[in-house]
Each structure stands twice: as structure tokens, then as C-alpha cells.
């Protein structure tokens, strides 16, 4: 099972395991990671699962597609490494992934 580390805006880290095929958002919700609200349940329609992908992992997680980019317009404090965690599929290659949560979700 790939391990993902979620780091809250306060610096507190949560290392959790996820199943291949899940999304990073589903892993976070299953483990009750604070800072991932995911109000739409993963439909890419609310931007409340916004995360910052650690720079070392951006090439492995890929770039947002057009729909995700449109939703990121509604997210808080968007940066170049911003992604919606509902759009990142967990793979074996993402074992060790590090993402950070913003101070708040809209």
C-alpha cells in the first residue's frame, strides 16, 4: 500500500496508507485527515479538497486538466503546485507522496 503524508498548514503531519486506485482525497477522508473537506465527494465540483503537492512529486502527480483548473479558480491561495486531491489517483509510484493542506478550504 502506498504511503501518503498529509501536512496540515500548522505543520502537523499525518502519514497514511492508501489503496492503489483510490484518489488522494479518498485516502484523506478514510483516515480523517484534517483540512480535506471534499464537500462534493470527489466530483471535481467544489475545490474543497485543495492540496499543495510537494515540489519533488509534481512530475509524478501530473498537471491538472481543464476542468480541475477551472475549479482551482475557486480555491484558497492557489499556487503553481496546487491540485484537487480528488483528481490524483493513487498508484504504486506515488508511495511516499507528500501533500500540504492550505490554511482553509472554500
What can you see in these coordinates?
The protein has 106 residues and is α+β, with helices and mostly antiparallel strands. It has a single domain, classed as Roll (Ubiquitin-like (UB roll)). Helices cover 17% and strands 20% of the residues. It has 3 helices and 5 strands; from the N terminus they run ββαβααββ. The protein has helices spanning 24-30, 58-61, 66-72; strands at 3-7, 13-17, 50-53, 82-84, 97-100. A 5-stranded mixed β-sheet has the order 2-1-5-3-4. The longest helix is centred in the N-terminal third of the chain and has 7 residues, at 24-30. The radius of gyration is 12 Å and the shape is globular.
Would you summarize the structure shown here?
With 106 residues, the protein is α+β, with helices and mostly antiparallel strands. It has one domain: Ubiquitin-like (UB roll). It is 17% helix and 20% strand.
Task: Please report the distance between the alpha carbons of the first and last residues.
Answer: 31 Å
- Please mark out the parts with pLDDT under 50 across 5 or more consecutive residues, or reply none: none
Helix content: 10-25%
Query: Based on helices, strands and strand pairing, what is the structural class?
Result: alpha+beta
Overall pLDDT level: 96
The CATH homologous superfamily is named Beta-grasp domain
